[in-house]
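Input protein
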Amino acid sequence: MATELKQNDGSDKTLPKIRDLKVAIVAAEWNSKITDALLQGAIERLHDEGYPDSCADVFRVPGTVELTFAASRLIDTDMYDAIIVLGCVIRGDTSHFDYVCQSVTQGITQLNADGDIPVIFGVLTTDNEQQALDRAGGRLGNKGAEAAECAIKMTCFNLICD
């Protein structure tokens, strides 16, 4: 759903409280100006919900394609309730954009279909840097914060289903 079309009825302001929540956040180094802002948004959202610094472990990988591998390995540790992946792919002059977006989308989708814990997709795929900045703490909010909120909700869902 386009950010401009998202209706905020206030229902997402009350999040469940999860005792001993443990989240892994994996952020791509590529486009770090954007991914650092997404990471900051995710951590701030967890803090806003009353979770301590120790609830989140942060990992860095070189680029967006590597997010899938890192998430897969972190799932295998059985240490986390959810994994948030953060990246930013900005369209360029070649088809590289399409391959990277397809790879990470399919990879994270597969991890969610096969796995026992949620992997939250916090990857921006934009036409230009301004669109990314708008979504990384700019006029359209912070998708990292939204990913942290999603991790809390999906962890709660997962606990209900266990």
User: Anything to note?
Assistant: Residues 7-11 have pLDDT under 50 and may be disordered. The helical segments are 32-48, 66-76, 96-114, 129-135, 143-161.
